[in-house]
Structure formats: C-alpha cells, structure tokens
Automatic annotation (TrEMBL), chain B:
Domain of life according to the entry: Bacteria
InterPro entries in alphabetical order: Thioredoxin-like_fold (IPR012336), Thioredoxin-like_sf (IPR036249), Thioredoxin_domain (IPR013766)
Organism of this sequence: uncultured Chthoniobacterales bacterium
Name the UniProt record assigns to this protein: Thioredoxin domain-containing protein
Gene3D superfamilies: Glutaredoxin
C-alpha cells in the first residue's frame, strides 16, 4: 500500500469515528430533549388546568410557578419550553441522521435556551427568591445539552 | 425507509407529548372538579382567606373540614388531636384546612401563627402546628415566645436564621389577616370553629361521634348532589 493510500485510509477511519461520535452525541441530545419535553409538558398541563404542582424537593416552587414570570404575553413559559425542547429533539434526531442544516438549528436553539435558562435562574435566585425543582431540572438538561454541543466535533 | 425514519420518530414523540399533556391535563381537571364539589359554598375562592390555604389529606377527598383556630387557645389543641383521629378514620374522603384566628386577648397567638407560617415557607407548617399545640403551656405565657419558637424550628431541622427572618415577613402577616377576614365573613367569633363542606358545626358536636356524624352526612349530601 502506498503512503498516499495509507494516509487516505487513516483519514477515512478518523472520519468514520468522528461520524459515530457525532451520532452518539446527537442521540444523547435527543434523549435529553425528550426528558426536558416531558418536564415542560407536565408543567404546561398543570398550568393550564389550574392545579398547583406537587413539588418534589424545594418548598416554594408554587411561588415560582404562579409568579408573573411564569407567563409571557399570556402564554405559559412552560409551553414555550416544551416547544423549545421539541425543536431541539427534532433537530438532534435529524442531525443524528446526518442532516447538516439540522445541526445548525440545534446549535442555535440550544444557545437561545441556554441564555433563557440563565435569565430564569437569575429570576429565581434574586427576584422571586424561591426555586422550583422542575425548573432546576430543566436548567440542568439545558446545561447538559449545551455541554454536548460544545464537545461535539465539527464535521470536516 | 431510512430516509423517513427520523420523521417517523419525531412524529411519534410529538404525538406522545400531546397525548401525555392531554392526559395530565384531564386528570388534574378531574381532581379539581372533585375538589370543587366541596367548595360549593365558596365558588372560585370568592371569600377572603390565605391562598393557598394550609391543607392536608387526599386531593380526591369529598369532605373538607375547615378549622379556625388560635394556637394559644387550649380547646383548639384538643380539637386538633380529634381532627387527626378523624383523618385516620376517614382516610381518603377527608381533607383538613387550617385557618388562623388568633384572639386579641392571647398575647402570643399572632407570633405563634407567624411561626407556623414561617415553618410553612420551609415546608413544615403541619410539623410546627403540631409542636405549637403540644408545647402550648410552655410558650403561652412566655415573655419571649419567639426564642422558644426558634427552638421548635431547630428541632424540626428548619433553617433557623431564615425562620426568624420570615416571622417578620409582611406577606405572612397578610396571610394571617386574610384568614381572620375569612373568619369574620363566615361569622366566626370564637375558637375553635369548624366548618364541614362550608357548613358551620355547632360546638356541642365537637366530639368524635359528633364530628363523624357530620362527616357522614356531608358524604351523603355529596352523593345526593351528584345523583341529581
């Protein structure tokens, strides 16, 4: 085998490994997005039904979920979150199947959600001065998604 | 087939999310509808009162005992024990709501109500409620009841610094005042006062048998109302 062929073979092998890594990472993104979607769907259904949410760990989550920040122009913030997570799920699934445009959408969406999450954490910590466990779970998921997107190798 | 697979997965997740959301929404609405049966005397929470009220018991319960009490009033402690017994006996069909009605002649009644509210902010209203009644004699006449309340808070593992600060919180004072306004609107003039499904219970019935009879007739009343 010539030197050039060996080099091409090594490049192809590296590319295949990179592809596999990307598929795995996008699949993890999709699974995380489903978890976020479930969380946001539960909060949306609770908000629309009018019943208070049963908090798991923190004690003042109802203060967060009934605050004026829980809706944006009359739309429950949880619904916005659910739509966001669904978009991330769809983009991650399509990216895992090799669609390049979906990768860009995924990066942008996660970036927007990351900034939104920081804002919501600030509101909980300094304005409402109470935390909600469902919101913290969502924040953890968004941070994990951002971490994955950062470590995902770019396509050559 | 592989070409369509991602879209099939996405569609399946979308449908599952919508179906799950709808199922959660429906079950929560049903629970609220069941709860509203007992609130026929106060539709949409029209009467004043702290919101959300301190409540325990099953969300599916069809009978609500609303108790107006003063932590410094000795008979209130007795009634509290009785209500606990009734809760055990009636399990899923009983819900208990506690309302503050601190009497003016009880100097430590308002601070005690605030202590319970402050504990509530850390998720331990009922634990403090029980401790206040249990130790009523110790703090009732104490010159510095607040320090005793802080000791109780520590005994149930509350953050005592936050607890002491929360006791001065205007929002908590407003909750106590709201309960007092509710009491006035419902014609309460003494403690303890008990309402079962919005119906005032005469003090002669403040016994295990008397209250159980009232609960049974409330259950009967609900059945008749839903049959019509």
């Amino acid at each position: 085998m010539s030197r050039r062929n060996r080099k091409q073979g090594a490049t192809a092998a590296a590319s295949a490994t990179g592809d596999r890594t990307r598929v795995i990472l996008y699949s993890i993104c999709a699974v995380l997005a489903v978890a976020g979607l479930a969380d946001a769907t539960y909060l949306t259904a609770s908000h629309l039904s009018g019943e208070t949410v049963t908090c798991l760990a923190s004690t003042r989550c109802s203060e967060v979920l009934t605050s004026k920040y829980a809706t944006v122009g009359g739309v429950p913030l949880a619904l916005v979150g659910a739509i966001g997570y669904f978009t991330v799920f769809a983009a991650a699934t399509l990216a895992a199947f090799g669609m390049e445009k979906a990768r860009r959408v995924l990066t942008i969406m996660i970036g927007v959600m990351f900034v939104g999450t920081l804002w919501l954490l600030y509101l909980q910590a300094f304005v409402i001065k109470a935390y909600c466990d469902y919101c913290l779970l969502s924040a953890a998921i968004t941070f994990a998604l951002a971490g994955i997107i950062i470590i995902t190798p770019p396509r050559k | 087939m592989k070409r369509y697979l991602p879209f099939v997965i996405i569609a399946a997740i979308a449908l599952s999310a919508v179906a799950t959301g709808a199922a959660v929404y429906r079950s929560k609405k049903q629970r609220l509808a069941a709860a509203s049966v007992v609130n026929v005397h106060d539709p949409a929470g029209a009467k004043p009162g702290a919101k959300p009220a301190h409540m325990r018991g099953s969300t599916k319960a069809t009978v609500t005992i609303e108790e107006f009490a003063d932590f410094q009033c000795p008979p209130c402690g007795g009634i509290s024990g009785l209500v606990k017994e009734l809760e055990k006996k009636n399990a899923d069909r009983l819900r208990v709501v506690f309302r503050h009605y601190p009497l003016k002649n009880h100097a430590n009644a308002v601070p005690a109500a605030l202590a319970a509210e402050a504990a509530g902010l850390q998720g331990k209203f009922w634990e403090m409620h029980d401790l206040l009644f249990k130790n009523q004699l110790a703090w009732s006449k104490a010159a510095d009841a607040r320090s005793l309340f802080t000791e109780y808070a520590a005994s149930i593992n509350l953050d005592t610094t936050r607890f002491a600060g929360d006791m001065n919180d205007e929002k908590l004072k407003a909750r106590v005042t709201a309960d007092q306004e509710r009491a006035t609107s419902m014609g309460v003039s003494r403690t303890p006062s008990i309402f079962i499904n919005g119906q005032a219970i005469p003090s002669e019935s403040f016994s295990m048998t008397g209250l159980q009879t009232a609960i049974d007739s409330a259950v009967q009343g609900n059945k008749q109302a839903s049959a019509q």
